[in-house]
Amino acid sequence: MKKTVTAWILALVLLCVGAFALAEEPVVQDRAGNPITLPETVERVVSLAPSITQVIADLGLGDTLVAVDQYSQGIEGVPEDVLTFDIMTPDAEQIIALDPDLVLLSGMTLSDGSDPLAQLTELGICVAYVPSSESIDAILEDNLFIGEILGNPEGAQALNDRLTEAIEALRVETETPRRVYFEISPAPYLYSFGTGTFLNEMIALLGGVNIFADQTGWLSVSEEAVIAADPEIIFTSAEWAEDPVGEILARDGWADVTAVREGAVYLIDEDAASQPNHRIVLALEEMAEAFADQ
Question: Which residue, of 144, 164, 184, is where some domain finishes?
Answer without folding.
Answer: 164
